[in-house]
């Protein structure tokens, strides 16, 4: 009976929604404690120069080592962190620990030069009035050259004060920090203020990369157009989510400057990244 199945389906759906809502509440309650209990972890994914095929830096990606639920990925707790404002404290933890990690690698690898560390920040974090002074102080404290720090900006739904976010990005750029636009053209990332941002790089989302090199020509045309736009604006291009040799070759042909993805490495522990 179609009607019966439909109703059963709706019940299952309601049940899932209910469970999701309950889990969100629990996440919210425990996330603050996670920061205090030091349960956050960073993983590091190499960013490769496509011309030399050498790593030029790492992107820091946050994880939560939950005592019961195991290692959680950002999609399981970042939305709650954004909603509750905890993202500001979480972001500060990420920045400080990513910079400390870079210093640690630099001291162990004296021959390696100009390694950069990319840290993700949402526009919500950039509305924090103290974000620039915190960044400046943490750079000074850790002794990292501001040019080694790359901030990857993702637009979030809770846009709020766009002007404050743009002002803070400009101030970060004045410190010498490099700015990148992450998740370009997906979700909320918009073109409308691209020309107003003092950005240095543009990151092409993996959703554009996955269909490269197939029989369809459109994915190639889209990626080619994004690369042309970025280069015309003087931005360096990083392609993310590269999983196959075909995609890598295609990105080289299209002139992408850098890339990252499982083809080279998954996000790694600090020791694996060092190795
Ligand atoms: P993102 O900045 O666009 O990061 C890229 C995501 O793609 C990461 O997921 C990474 O693990 C994944 N990835 C990398 N290479 C491949 C690949 O070849 N194939 C596939 N399928 N995936 C790949 P992750 O670590 O789950 O992070 C998701 C998002 O969470 C990030 O997207 C970023 O927007 C956000 N995020 C992560 N860490 C932080 C943080 O410390 N602060 C803030 N504000 N956001 C963060
Ligand atoms: Mg990113
Ligand atoms: Mg991205
Ligand atoms: Mg992405």
Automatic annotation (TrEMBL):
<protein>
    <submittedName>
        <fullName>PAS domain S-box-containing protein/diguanylate cyclase (GGDEF)-like protein</fullName>
    </submittedName>
</protein>
<feature type="domain" description="EAL">
    <location>
        <begin position="24"/>
        <end position="275"/>
    </location>
</feature>
């Amino acid at each position: 009976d179609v009607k019966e199945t439909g109703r059963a389906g709706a019940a299952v759906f309601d049940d899932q929604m209910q469970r999701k809502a309950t889990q969100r509440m629990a996440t919210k309650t425990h996330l603050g404690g996670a920061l205090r209990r030091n349960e956050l972890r960073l993983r590091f994914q190499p960013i490769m120069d496509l011309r030399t095929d050498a790593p030029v830096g790492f992107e820091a990606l946050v994880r939560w080592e939950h005592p019961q639920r195991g290692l959680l990925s950002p999609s399981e707790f970042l939305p709650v962190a954004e909603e509750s404002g905890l993202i500001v404290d979480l972001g500060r933890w990420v920045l400080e620990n990513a910079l400390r990690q870079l210093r640690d690698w630099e001291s162990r690898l004296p021959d390696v030069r100009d390694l950069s560390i990319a840290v993700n920040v949402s526009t919500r974090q950039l509305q924090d009035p103290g974000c620039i002074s915190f960044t400046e102080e943490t750079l000074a404290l850790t002794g990292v050259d501001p040019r080694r720090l790359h901030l990857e900006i993702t637009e979030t739904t809770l846009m709020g004060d766009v002007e404050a976010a743009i002002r803070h990005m400009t101030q970060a750029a004045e410190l010498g920090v490099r700015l990148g636009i992450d998740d370009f053209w997906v979700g909320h990332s918009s073109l409308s203020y691209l020309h107003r941002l003092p950005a240095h790089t543009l990151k092409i989302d993996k959703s554009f990369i996955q269909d490269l090199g197939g029989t369809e020509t459109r994915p190639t045309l889209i990626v080619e157009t994004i690369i042309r736009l970025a280069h015309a604006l003087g931005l360096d291009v990083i392609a993310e989510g590269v999983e196959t040799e075909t995609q890598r070759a295609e990105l080289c042909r299209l002139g992408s400057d850098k890339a990252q993805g499982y083809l080279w490495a998954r996000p790694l522990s600090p020791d694996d990244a060092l190795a």
